[in-house]
Amino acid sequence: MAWMPPLHILLSPITADTGAMIEQVQLKPLFYAAQKDALARAGDDEDDQFFELAKLATGLSEKELDQLKRPDYVSIAQYVHEMSTRPASFFLKEQDVTTHDQPVHLLLPLEAAGRNLSELPLEMPALRATKVMKKLATNKERAEFITAHCTGLMIPDLAGLTVPDWTELQERIDDFLNKPADFFRSATSK
After folding, report:
1. 157: closest CA among 117, 130, 124?
2. Would you say 163 and 75 are in contact if contact means Cβ atoms under 8 Å apart?
3. Highest taxon of the source (predicted)?
4. Closest by CA position to 35, among listed 61, 56, 12
5. Are 102 and 168 a contacting pair, CB within 8 Å?
6. 106 — phi, psi (to 5°)?
7. Between vectors from CA 97 to CA 127 and to CA 130, what angle results, nearest 5°?
8. DSSP 44
């Protein structure tokens, strides 16, 4: 069964823009491109960033979100924080220790090149790819380039990844970029 975001039962119901009562909110996954856009809109203020991400995670309007009682907002903010910082394996509750030669299991399937992918195989980057990566202007461009290179995806396909999938990929790719060969030998021999 595919992963589903949690349903949040509101401690204190709110009134929808339509006048109906909202007693529960089906939380949604955060996607890489949408999160990046929301953070750009919010600027540097952390409260504004969480508010923008809460709009994405709940589908509620600004007026509806403003009605939330603080405990409900804190619950939603906690979900947003986990979505923004935890890898997919946290949500999938994978018990097995993954090795670096195993594919990354995606939180939600990704549509890419006419295929529906539930996992992404990773390939360690060659030195020439890291040389190209280092010439790119921003950290974002470098991360997107090396992620596309290691996964075989096109850069536009990365927008469809959930944030936890992006985080999982960054952790694994960071190991590829910074760990010595013995790290991988010991990980695959367990």
Report:
1. 117
2. no
3. Bacteria
4. 56
5. no
6. -80, 145
7. 10
8. T
Question: Tokens at residue 73, please?
Answer: 């907002």
DSSP state of 28: -
CA 43 to chain centre: 19
Rounded Cα gap, residues 176 and 125, in angstroms: 7
Angstrom distance (rounded) from CA 7 to CA 24 = 7
- CA 1, 162, 187, 130 dihedral sign is positive
Look at residues 144, 19, 18, 3 and name the one whose alpha carbon lies nearest to residue 83.
3
CA atoms within 13 A on the CB side of 172: 28
How many Å apart are CA 101 and CA 80, to the nearest integer? 30
Q: Where are the domains of the chain?
A: 7-85, 98-188
Burial of 8 (0-12, 13-18, 19+ CB in 10 A): middle
pLDDT digits (tens, 9 = 90+) for 122-168: 999 988 999 999 999 999 999 999 999 999 999 999 999 999 999 99
How many Cα atoms within 13 Å fall on the side-chain side of residue 156?
3
| Residue spans of beta strands (DSSP E) within 36-96 | none
109 in Cβ contact with 119 (< 8 Å)? no
